[in-house]
Specification:
The complex is a heterodimer of chains A (about 375) and B (about 725). Chain A is of the alpha/beta class and about 375 residues long. Chain A has helices spanning about 1-15, 25-40, 45-70, 190-195, 225-230, 260-280, 305-310, 320-335, 370; strands at about 15-20, 70-75, 80-85, 90-95, 105-110, 115-125, 130-140, 145-155, 160-175, 210-215, 235-240, 245-250, 285-290, 295-300, 340-345, 360. In chain A, the strands form four sheets. In chain A, strands 1, 3, 5, 6, 8 and 9 form a six-stranded mixed beta sheet that branches. In chain A, strands 14-13-12-15-16 form a five-stranded mixed beta sheet, sandwiched between helices. Classes of the chains: A alpha/beta (about 375), B alpha+beta (about 725).
Amino acid sequence: MTANRFQTGFRRLFRNRTIRVTTEGIRFLLLTLAVGIAAVNTGNNLFYLLLAMMLSLVVLSGLLSEQCVRRLDFHRHLPDYLFVNQPATATLRITNHKSRIPSLSLRLFDVVAGKDLDRGMHLTHLAPGASTLCSYPLLVRERGSYRLDGIRVVTPFPFGLFQKTSFYPLEAIVIVCPEIIPLSPLHFQELNALGQEHALSRRGPGSSLYNLREFRPGDDSRAIHWMTTARTAKLMLKETEAEDRRSITLAISTLAPDEQDTTFERALSIGASLIDHFLKDGYEVRLVLGDQQDMYACGTEQSLHLFHALALCTRRPMEAGAAVRQAMAQALAEPQEGPTILLSPWADPAQSETWLPVEYVVSPQSHRELFDGTRSGFPA
Amino acid sequence: MALDQAFRLSSILLAATGFASLTLAIVLPLWLLTFAGGAFALALLRVNHATAISGALQHLRLSALTWNIFLLLAFAGFWIDLLIVSQELLPAGIHFLVLLLVNKLSNLDQRRDFLHLYAISLITLLASAALTTQLWYAPFFFVYLVAGVWTLLLYHLWQEQEENAGRHMTSANPAQTRSPQPTMTVRFFWTTNVLAAGAFGLTLLFFFLIPRIGVGLLQNTHGESLRTTGFSEQVDLGVIGPVKQDPSIVMRVELPDSVGPASTRGPLYLRGVAYNRYNGKSWSNSLPHRRMLTELPPGTFTLRTSGAKLPASPRGLRQDILLEPLDTAVLFGAPFPSTITGTFLSVQSDLMGSLHLAFPSHTRIQYTAYSLPTSLSSAERTAAAVLYPEHILQQYLQIPAVSSQIVELARHVTQPATSVFQTVTLIQAHLLADYRYNLDVPSLQSAHPLEDFLLTRKTGYCEHYATAMVVLLRAVGIPARLVTGFLATEWNEFGGYYTVRQRDAHAWVEVYFPQSGWITMDPTPPVPETVGQTWWQSMGRAMDSVRLQWDRLFVHFSANDQLTVVQGIRESGEVVRTKLSESLTALSVKSSAMLRRVLSTLTPTGIPHAALLFMLAICAAYLGRRLLRSPRNDASQPDVLSAHQRTVITLYTNMLHCLAQHGIEKSASTTPFELLRQVREQWFEAWPTADALTQLYTHVRFGQAPLTREDCTIAEDLLRRLRTLERATPPQNNRTL
């Protein structure tokens, strides 16, 4: 019972600690071993004294490095959404909770799926009770949930003979949206032409007054409504009603065979790029995502919902083809404003049998260069 | 000092310490010393005047090819040295090591060069440890340890700085935090020294804890022994004289059971060998037969005469003796040693009570001797004649063919004696009174040294006095023998022991009385000593005391010492445990009595004992939990604000008071920046000051930003300026009124 308790306590204390011997450390230990053998062989007490000195340096290394990596506190600030291949800035706040002992020579690694990722974070000195901020670029290559397990702290202090590693659990999950790829402007006109006749009252460039609101940083100062500002003693901004109000529906088929997984990811990237383009251009966008999501977004502020759906959407196997097609047909059969673009990651032979009210189809067959990634833009 | 400079300096100091210890341990050739000294000087010049003389040094630097050729030549020289010149591995290896050191000192450029230098310096210190056990090694070791901690620490920081510099160069947009590099500040200096002190403490701890397992495969047991005279089988009269000027230390003797002030300590006779045959020029032992001493218990050798029982306890005068390596196997002790305790294979004794090892020891030996001093019985003190055993008369009445004048002198001197003991004292008094102590006596060249001393020259030293007394006593029929040993007179008040030197070699007389045994008599007059002690003599004794401690604690620290320490700890632990247990028992008795009294006073109120005890237990548990939790809570929410940061927060609070006095009050829901907006709208003149102070406050309060003393000064100035401002527009309160 006591032994079990001791083992549990020992594991709790040392589970997050590892020690790696550096090259210099290996040489030092070999020298120590040699001195030890000489001491035992000769019985010379001065050799024992030298051996004791070298052992004391080893122990001192362990004690000081432990002091360096303990009682640290980490707080990470991450953006809500990331986009594939688009660098974002993450910030890490490190606090040394020790009252008297500084932490020295710290190297910090992000731990993702059990692997240490070197972000180039290095702290030479962190005073007792002090905290500091480290910012580093975060670049993710895959869509989905990006999970960060924690922070690994490594220090070779004080002599560089050993590297003491400590793991601080700091879990975080970031949604990584598909990559926004540049689209050819030549074909925007063609796409923009779709749904010109559908206009809705909404905020946007125009001359009619849509709303008055308080001025916020980043607003265009030319839009300040000076009369209201004078009356209310607050900076007021005039919002105009968009003169062109268009809607568009983007239907993305989530159906693709296993070998078409790369094309499916590419299709999602194209879809995200189209959504980004249309929303920035003032469209109200409806996204029909296979049988998984059906949602609207208007304006860039609401775009994150759509990107979130794209980030988490999963490819459906061929066995679920009928259900997906039926769900999409039902969703698109509903009365809607504006044209419909169908984005299909592969040439579905059964798709032609199902009637879908679409005006424009984007598929690897019709837009091969876009899907290949060799050249951005739609074919002429 | 810059990091790079400090690092190079400490590296050179480390190597210099190892090299200096080596030069003290072994005599290096002058050319090698000059060569190494030059390399050290150049290395130091490169560190301290790198810019000034870098051009000149660049010209002096040799190419890598030249150094490679140099190393090859050095290696060839090593073999020549080993096979032809010194013909020993250690000196040849050390010479080669010094050449390697010169090579590395001249090429300290890359990281590996420094590592090689450290390894070489460690080997030099190791070689030094193999060659010496002297006290001077201790300061060198200490300096090496301190320099080692400094060097390793600076090496790590230097390496880190270089890696950082490389990372900054390779990375176009580095994400590293721009934290300041550590500089060689006073704090760094002391912190590193504290680390070194910690390393030293750990070193001592490990040194005493590491189990001593001396396999002895490569052990060098052939040390250099001190040459002594006067303890061989045959001793020429006058051999002690030449060593009477030799200050070499032969042994140190502690008397652990002897108490009293140092001033009361008289001379201590340390008996070595006794002789019974004198042929007119030299003394010899006609009873050379030796027997082994009984070893019971192990390590304790007891001398007993045939047929006698072992003494119940070997008590008497106890002496702890640390004997230097001598060329004789004699063991010394105060007259008359009966028991010897030490790590010996065997101890032998001849028929005159002299103790010997089987062979001379080439290392220092430590042993304890118990001596049983003899005293003359009152009956024999006054006896007019005594009856000597036959074997005593046979062995101790031999007289060489000396002049009849000597026999006549003996009779003349002892004529007034009425007892045997008075005869002895008259001869002793005659020698003490009528002869002069003088070391400048050419006895070894004399054909009749005793006659020269007694009849002609009447000057001599201890050997002459003792020989004369023995011969005079024998001439009147009293058995006597000559004893050689040491007369310890130099008391070391710092270490609490006698220091015995070669010059303390002495000879005296043992006179036989049938009932009392052998009685020690010394006819040599005391040597006139120089009056007063100079400070360097005191210093010398202090140093000798330190040297003794060094020998005991470090050089000769053994597994037995470890066992002694463990036993001591165990015994003291048992004592502590017993006392603690007694204290706890007494405390529990007192507390139970007190509790009983409390309970008896509460009983009339109607509270049952069990309920009261239960309540007390709950209270104790609650208090215990509070006590246990409070430090944890404190630790979980540490006050991370520094003094400067608290100052700024206080200043901001004062600013709020100041603004409130001018009618701008901050409600609980108002944020600092909303308040700032109010200030801008209502009191524009104060806005820049309030803005700056608010910015500082928010950085501290919400950003946990570290602040400097300058920031605090600025904040104080801002508040002072704010207080001096007068608000042009009336305060809100006045306006509403």
